[in-house]
């Protein structure tokens, strides 16, 4: 009798768990009642014939974030779950997590410094309006003046401003000048100086990292000579606010850096919240270097990137 019960319970379990039969279908197939099938399935679990494992993709994200936080000495790390290790999907999920974090974090009278790019635009699109007072939003770096590629610079800053019920302060300059002297002269303009100072005063900075791969925007647009591009690709691993750094987070070229318009990387270290939003295989080197350089104290990324950062 016991052997027959074992046989029936195992057969019922195979049909139910492996072949997706309903309990009624199994009852008809085995010639017993549906309640009997329910009891047989319960018996199979109790005896250990059936073992159910539930894989929770969110289960270890907190622990993973704590490991990153400890390794790179950060204030906070938020890991967004991405169902696939593909850049576009990762970007979608980390930008949503960043938008949610900003909604939770931003308070009255905060000054938010914002960069531009696809990731930042994705964050901006997912921001939810928040009733706050006295918030200011400022663009942290210049734009691209002769691009046929949409950088969403103005749109990004404007969407941030709309979400937090304020007006945006734009940086109406190219991100890199050909000539240091011209750049220095332009920065003396009263309006430009005010925007620059507002960026320094920002207590929250939100940014991503770029790479030094051939398809990097500034490379494609010819902002650098061939020799300069080769230097940045040879010595560097990425950029923040178009300021290029090596694997240790050190500026690659002081001459190029002096021609760049926007917040200095050293200023990011002084922010209450310096928030890096980045993920994907292509950006791992740049993210790691940015964390080594202590340019971010808050990281928002995905679980694939986080695991790579621990290697």
From TrEMBL:
Keyword Iron in record: no
SUPFAM superfamilies in the cross-refs: NagB/RpiA/CoA transferase-like, Sigma3 and sigma4 domains of RNA polymerase sigma factors
Keyword Lipoprotein listed: no
Domain of life according to the entry: Bacteria
Keywords noted in UniProt: DNA-binding, Transcription, Transcription regulation
One Pfam short name: Sugar-bind
Residue stretches making up the HTH crp-type domain: 1-58
PROSITE patterns found in the cross-reference section: HTH_CRP_2
Family: Belongs to the SorC transcriptional regulatory family.
Protein name: Deoxyribonucleoside regulator
